[in-house]
Amino acid sequence: MVVGVYVDDLIITGNDAGGIAKFKQEMRAKFKMSDLGLLCFYLGIEVRQGGDDIKLSQAAYARKILERAGMASCNPCHTPMEPRLKISLSTTVPVGATEYRGFVGCLRYLVHTSTTGTVLC
């Protein structure tokens, strides 16, 4: 059995259903807890469990970042900037340092936990 803990959330997995049930029962006896069933969403990662596989996706988290940045209606492109664009101080739009750091943090989390196309067996 493996138990993943993040603050007050637990993910419990293993190959012994009886052992997992016993662990949950012991935890309920000591702590107030609820069993939400099969994992479907955790820390910005969507989890879809099939018969023989588990698929992970962060599409909803990526959309949330785009909405927060006011870019939800933007068109995707391979080159995120006009080629050979000359940038000057007069063409930049001021952004607050806290907001900028927040976006960088969101993007770092997205990249470092990226699961695009991942299938676990």
Please characterize this protein's 3D structure.
The protein has 121 residues and is of the alpha+beta class. It is 33% helix and 19% strand. It contains three helices and six strands, in the order ββαβββααβ. Strands 3-4-5-6 form a four-stranded antiparallel β-sheet. A two-stranded antiparallel ribbon has the order 1-2. Strand 3 (41-42) and strand 4 form a beta hairpin. It is elongated and about 65 Å long. The mean pLDDT is 84.
How is the secondary structure organized here?
Layout: E1 2-6, E2 9-13, H1 17-30, E3 41-42, E4 45-49, E5 54-57, H2 59-68, H3 97-112, E6 119-120
Q: Quick gist of this model?
A:
With 121 residues, the chain is of the alpha+beta class.
User: Structural class given helices, strands, pairing?
Assistant: alpha+beta
> What portion of residues belong to β-strands?
15-25%
Tell me the major beta sheet.
4 strands, antiparallel
The rough form would be described as elongated
Strand order across the largest sheet: 3-4-5-6
Oligomer state equals single chain
